[in-house]
Specification:
mainly beta, globular, seven-stranded mixed β-sheet
Length: 116
């Protein structure tokens, strides 16, 4: 089954850290770039980071530069998003996604809430 499954979200205090994981199945993960996209309450989806197939970083949104780090382990079919110095504005549902054979493939999302 072709799918992406995110995990690692939760409630964290401002200034805290979280690491999100996204595990792929059903396709040759190592051949595809991956993106992390978030959707805050009442807002549209925005890409926060993209990573190429060979672990080179392609993009970080200005709002997360220096705080978020994307990485991948092709042996585990998993992409990660390490988030540090979290702010209330980082509260959102975080999705991983890829472009697969001309279509977008999305995970189900994981909720990140930054609040004291």
């Amino acid at each position: 089954q072709v799918q992406l499954v995110e995990s690692g979200g939760g409630l964290v205090q401002p200034g805290g850290s979280l690491r999100l994981s996204c595990t792929a199945s059903g396709f040759t993960f190592s051949q595809y770039g991956m993106s992390w996209v978030r959707q805050a309450p009442g807002k549209g989806r925005n890409t926060v980071a993209s990573i190429g197939s060979s672990d080179h970083i392609q993009y970080y949104a200005d709002s997360v530069k220096g705080r978020f780090t994307a990485s991948r382990d092709n042996a585990k079919n998993t992409v990660y998003l390490r988030m540090s110095n979290l702010k209330p504005d980082d509260t959102a549902v975080y999705y991983c996604m890829t472009h697969l054979d001309g279509s977008e493939l999305w995970g189900q999302g994981t909720q990140v809430t930054v609040s004291s």
